[in-house]
Amino acid sequence: MAELYVVGLGPGDTACLTGEAAAALARAEVLCGYGVYVELIAPQFPGREIVTTPMKHEVERCRRALELASAGRTVALVCSGDAGIYGMAAPVLELAEEYPGAQVQIIPGVTAALSGAAVLGAPLGHDFCVISLSDLLTPWDVIEKRLSCAAEGDFAICLYNPASKKRGDYLQRACDIVLRRRGGETLCGWVRNIGRAGQEHRLLTLAELREEKLDMFTTVFIGASATREIAGRMVTPRGYRLA
Ligand code: SAH
Questions:
Q1: Nearest CA, atom 18, ligand 1
Q2: 129 and 229 housed in the same domain
Q3: Whole-model pTM?
Q4: Which residues of the chain have pLDDT under 50?
């Protein structure tokens, strides 16, 4: 019986790792995951066996990690950000019953909503929703409904997977849904390559966001009605009396 750590690496290099994640990686004999993420941290944890799987082979990746742990190896399965947010933690736990020899432990990481929010200021200072625009596993009409309800509830909205090559107009469609409930001047922002080389960000209005061409390395923030710009930062006040 051996440990399988499902580890969120945070948004970028090892500077974004939590202490708990670093300790789990240090204990691991095998580093498992999508090639790019394993390569990001492998130099800091040398001498481990590396097992990589390509993108979109998530189930195979989880099974491989569970098999190795069942065979007695201490394994870290790594994900970007937090492993529980659009990551491997849920499928590992769904499959784990088939591998009673593996002891699964989930190690949290700093998800892109949090690391990106810190770059922009404090856009998530009050209630917020996180919605992925990827329709690979979620039907688009469900995504539309969630966007519409989040807009109706006046939540700040954080969008993951805002675009891909096949889904060029999804961000535009998402903005149109929010625009039914919120004005075009609503403050928004995006952050690209958070915690990585080439990090960039922009504050803009919802009307401008609708015209923006973004890629999958970007996280988007749509303000609530109370969100405003303060000295170049995006801030959603919680309502403290400051006077
Ligand atoms: N488990 C990850 C999310 C995986 S979904 C997490 O908790 O952060 C992939 C999406 O996350 C991307 O399309 C993007 O919207 C966001 N994302 C993840 N890492 C990012 C980074 N370093 N910079 C910007 N966006 C990022």
A1: 112
A2: yes
A3: 0.96
A4: none
